[in-house]
Amino acid sequence: MLKHVQSGVDDRANRPRSLNGMERIYLPHIARAFPGLQIDAMGSQAENLLIRSYEALAGGIDPELKADFGPYYYDALTRLITQNEAQGEDRARFEQVKVHQRVLSHYGWREGKRIIEFQFAVEAFMSSPARPEPAKQQLRNTLRFQYLEDSEAFVGADGETTVLTQNCPNCGAPLRGAAAELCPYCRSEIKKIQLETWLPVELLPEGWTEKWLPDSGADALFGS
Predict the structure, then answer these.
(1) What is the pLDDT of residues 90-143, one digit of tens each?
(2) N or C: which end of the chain has fewer CB within 10 A?
């Protein structure tokens, strides 16, 4: 019986988490609303942000990263790291982080804003100051982007810094709608700036804010 239980634990530790891939459903909707948006490029950006977020958790977050992450994501990540540190000697630490798979998992509306979410199957060796022996874990993380299209949304998290504008980068004229491809005044192409109007806003990771209690088992920590 004990051998069977141990086999199940080992299987969970080595089998990547299943993901909710919804590309077939959401990609046509995204293409209609944002014909110039490159989802693969956004997914690569999300994966890079995910890895750098784990690095920031391990080594401390540098204020200079705000320019790279954007103010919304930076502030959300800072809160996550603070929650992690609040667990004291039981705070989770992650090493040898590896992404097994990435999928587009959601496109829709949240609190009146359009969002795109990417889900990741992540492998890491987890430990804590109180339990320094690392244990392999399979995790499921989500990273959320939000489309900022009203004037209030283009104000930074500090209430002052302008993140983006809805004006043509060439002549300054106001743009008409999210899917516009040409400036109505100077006729310059503006598709290339669409990716910039989708900003990362939040990481939803497993295991960051809970106490690391390996004796509880993976299901108790992260769900099935």
Answers:
(1) 999 999 999 999 999 999 988 778 999 999 999 999 999 999 999 999 999 999
(2) N
**Contact present, 9 and 217 (Cβ < 8 Å):** yes
Tokens describing residue 87: 């667990």
- Indicate the SS3 state at residue 116: strand
Angle of CA points 74, 80, 85, to nearest 5°: 125
As a whole number of angstroms, the distance between CA 121 and CA 182 comes to 38
**CA 108, CA 32: separation in Å to the nearest integer?**
13
Question: Alpha-carbon distance 207 to 214, whole Å?
Answer: 11
Tokens for 29, please give them: 């909707």
For residues 76 and 147, give the distance between their C-alpha atoms in angstroms, rounded to a whole number: 16
Angle between helices 39-59 and 71-85 (to 10 degrees): 40
As a whole number, mean pLDDT of residues 68-75 equals 90
Structure tokens at 148: 């900022």
